[in-house]
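Dear colleagues,

I hope this message finds you well. In preparation for our joint manuscript, I am sending the Sec translocon accessory complex subunit YajC (Neisseria wadsworthii 9715) sequence together with its predicted structure, so that both groups work from identical material. I would be grateful if you could confirm receipt.
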Amino acid sequence: MIEFAYAADAAAQPNMLMQFAPLILILVVFYFLIMRPQQKKFKAHQAMLAELKSGDRVLLASGFVGRIVRSDDKFFTVEIARNVEVQVERNAVASKLEA
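The corresponding structure tokens are as follows:
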């Protein structure tokens, strides 16, 4: 009688894969809707930063618009007004503006 009870209990438990299927589905949706677009945006921003050169007009993260005067490995020197140059980190450049 006890053996029959164990067999009935084992048959009533759902498959382990079916228990984790909703979690796996949520993770897949999370990856395709959130993580993958963020990675593509980050790669595009890094490519844009690598292509910047002196004379390009840029929009800084602070909202200033300026023209790149010099570029180093980690910093850009940006002219935001006549004879006003500021040194900003490369990641402070939000986007490149068309001339």
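For the figure legend, we might mention the following. Residues 11 and 19 are 15 Å apart (CA to CA). The mean pLDDT is 89.

With kind regards,
E.M.
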